Amino acid sequence: MAKVIASSIRKGNVIDMDGVLYIVLTAENVHPGKGNSVTQVEMRRISDGVKVSERWRTVDSVEKAHVDENEFDFLYEDGEGYHFMNPETYDQITVSEDVVGDAKVHLRDGIRVWMLTHEGVALSIELPQKVTVEVEETEPVVKGQTASSSYKPATCTGGIRVMVPPHIGVGTRIIINTTDNSYVERAKD
């Protein structure tokens, strides 16, 4: 474990406070007009998922835990949780739903994700920037509506709601951004 100054803490870092691990959700350096600069951090306790807010002076030392970042392939989901496999070692790991979080709608068989682990325990997963999905439901194109650059709502694989251009129809494969579920382009396959 390494000591770092509070102002260098970033989202995704794992902090060790009194032997308890926390994953950083947000970190903000605040410079008030009067007084010392502080770092406000919102964290989630890894053991039970409780959110905690902390405030440190920017020059305070904080214990940063060592975490491993590895690629994993998503296999399947069942009553135990979400199952992933390391493509290099073929080791499998089961992850609970609270670790997967909002990423669960993007998980498809074989999708490759980055997983942060600490001593073999999964802390968080990070999706690829873009994924390909299929449009399952959308409104038909109305003639004459193509003159404006309006977008229409569409429901994609996994129930993901996306605003798509008028020329996109049911069955079309599109690429979306996983951070905000926005349309990027039509898939080229």
TrEMBL record:
HAMAP family registered for this protein in UniProt: EF_P
Top-level taxon in the UniProt lineage: Bacteria
Any one GO BP annotation for this protein: peptide biosynthetic process
InterPro entries: Elong-fact-P_C, NA-bd_OB-fold, Rib_uL2_dom2, Transl_elong_fac_P/YeiP, Transl_elong_KOW-like, Transl_elong_P/YeiP_cen, Transl_elong_P/YeiP_CS, Transl_elongation_fac_P
Sequence ranges assigned to domain Elongation factor P C-terminal in this UniProt record: 131-186
GO molecular function terms attached to this record: translation elongation factor activity
Pfam families: EFP, EFP_N, Elong-fact-P_C
Pathway linked to the protein: Protein biosynthesis; polypeptide chain elongation
One GO CC term on file: cytosol
Boundaries of every Translation elongation factor P/YeiP central domain copy: 69-123
UniProt cross-references to CDD domains, sorted A to Z: S1_EF-P_repeat_1
Family matches, as Gene3D superfamilies: 2.30.30.30, Nucleic acid-binding proteins
UniProt similarity note: Belongs to the elongation factor P family.
Protein keywords: Cytoplasm, Elongation factor, Protein biosynthesis
Name of this protein: Elongation factor P
Gene: efp
Function field: Involved in peptide bond synthesis. Stimulates efficient translation and peptide-bond synthesis on native or reconstituted 70S ribosomes in vitro. Probably functions indirectly by altering the affinity of the ribosome for aminoacyl-tRNA, thus increasing their reactivity as acceptors for peptidyl transferase.
Species: Rhodobacter xanthinilyticus
Cellular compartment(s): Cytoplasm
